[in-house]
Amino acid sequence: MNRLHAAPAFRPSIVALTLVCALTLCKDSSLAGRIELPIFDAHIHYNHDVRESVPPKEAIARLRKAGVMRALVSSSGDEGTQSLREEAPDLIIPELRPYRANGETGSWFRDDSVIEYLRGRLNRYRYVAIGEFHVSGTDADLPVVRALVQLAKRHGLMLHAHSDADAVERMFGQDSDARILWAHGGYEKPARIREMLLRYHSLWPELSSRDDMLSNGRLAEEWRAILLEFPDRFMIGTDTHRPERWDTIAANAASARDWLGELPAEVAERLAYQNGESLITAEFSQKRALRSP
Question: Which of 27, 79, 143, 202 is the most buried (most CB within 10 A)?
Fold first, then answer.
């Protein structure tokens, strides 16, 4: 079973530390929603079609204004991720997407050149994961996907998969030690997600674009139950897959804080940022240390 890593080497900003301390001192769950929880956003894209309208400095400013303390970023192509990382290395944690441009989501898994592209980028830069990539059902058994899974294993990288439960199971069948960040929880229902979490202990769903979490403006009971049962297994995100989604980062963070405020404070902290920090930030910090001279 994979375990969460120890506290990360990266340090939150002074503001974030102040917020964390305030929340730690205040364990009354009724007060959790009133405190501006720092956010680990586990699903940010900075694709080529957004860079002119939202240049790197502006993108970073928007993330900071929303209270995002760390962001897991991928892009089509990878130059976008690297430009944000250069602008704010304290904030941006890079992952490597197999797409060189938009429009490859439904074709990459039949394109042999993808693997050489990934190898070239992995030789040049450090990443914490490969993804976010899209694959469903039996397509997860295609040779390109199998090669990607093995490439991630060889480099000690997570997989950030936009996949249904079937494809996730197939990837675990290819590498039982894989660590998968499950984009949107595969849009599966909470009951199915629960089955997967019980079966695979190195699976972490992230909850971007899950409009079904709320019922009449409140956290739906089926979601409350699974979040309370597995507080160390979920992360939140925005999914800026279109340029206009960069306009919703602050609103998404505010909405997340609203429903997080309905949970016990210690659970809200885990979902808002601690799970991302313990797993992803710590992992990337360790990789940086290993690569240092």
Answer: 202
